Amino acid sequence: MLGEGILKGLAETARNFVGSYVSKERLTTVEYPEQRIAPIEATRDFPFLVYDGKDWDAGLRCVACQICEKECPPKCIFIEKSKDKKPDAVGKQQFYPARFDIDISVCMSCQICVEVCPFDAIKMNTEFELSTTDRFGGLLLDRQQLAKSNEYYHEIHPTEASGVDARLAAERAAAEAKAKAAAEAAAAKAAAAAASSAAKPAGGEA
Ligand code: SF4
Ligand code: SF4
């Protein structure tokens, strides 16, 4: 029937309007900005950089590999890799981003940067009140503006962040076990070499 969709839509609106007086579930709007609906966990808008520990600069997980910069479809990520290395949050020497900017006036929230990052260093934020009268500089976020703690990540995406923590802990444990096994093997080899040279008679004394 012609106009059936419009009538259905109007009926739904009327049901919500009348129903909102008797049922909270029918109250589909709130008086924003005084009232706010908490975003669902899968909400995403613009990326942020995760850091571990208390110091955002020292704890950034990003190692400036620049994969996200290459893969970003509208090319709105700008990275300068450091010349030197410094210890990351677990004490491993790593390169770091001397510069890491994202132009969120260009970002299309596709999340590809998150998908391609091998270090779980970049994730999607849920913060949307980012409007500014400065269209250019105001929307070019630098690494300090982008840095958010792992605790913040847990607040906005608890399920995802717990999964990442578990995976990173397993990877760290595996790396530590491998390093320990290598150290033990080297020590055993050195001990065997020392025992073998001690067992040999000294040259010219036979
Ligand atoms: S979300 Fe998409 S567009 Fe935005 S910075 Fe990441 S890859 Fe680029
Ligand atoms: S955010 Fe991830 S993919 Fe992008 S440069 Fe840093 S470590 Fe590499």
Overview of the structural elements:
The chain is elongated. It has 206 residues and is of the alpha+beta class. The protein has a domain at 47-163: Alpha-Beta Plaits, CATH 3.30.70.3270. The strands form 3 sheets. A 3-stranded mixed sheet has the order 6-1-8. A 3-stranded antiparallel sheet has the order 2-5-7. A two-stranded antiparallel ribbon has the order 3-4. It has helices at 4-19, 56-59, 67-71, 112-116, 143-146, 150-156, 158-199; strands spanning 47-51, 77-81, 86-87, 93-94, 97-103, 122-124, 140-141, 147-149. It contains 7 helices and 8 strands; from the N terminus they run H-E-H-H-E-E-E-E-H-E-E-H-E-H-H. One iron/sulfur cluster binds at residues 47, 72-74, 76-77, 102, 107-113.
Largest sheet: 3 strands, mixed
Number of helices: 7
* Beginning-to-end CA distance, first to last residue: 112 Å
Percent of residues in helices: 40-55%
What Rg do the Cα atoms give?
Answer: 28 Å
CATH architecture of the domain at 47-163: 2-Layer Sandwich
What structural class results from the helix and strand content? Answer: alpha+beta
Sheet with most strands: strand arrangement: 6-1-8
CATH class of the domain at 47-163: Alpha Beta
Q: Rough shape?
A: elongated
Under CATH, the topology of the domain at 47-163 can be stated as Alpha-Beta Plaits
Which assembly state applies to the chains in this document? single chain
Provide the residue-averaged pLDDT.
Answer: 91
**pLDDT < 50 runs, ≥5 residues:** none
Bound molecules: iron/sulfur cluster
Order of helices and strands: HEHHEEEEHEEHEHH
What's the β-strand tally?
Answer: 8
Q: Please report which band the strand proportion falls in: under 5%, 5-15%, 15-25%, 25-35%, 35-45% or over 45%.
A: 5-15%
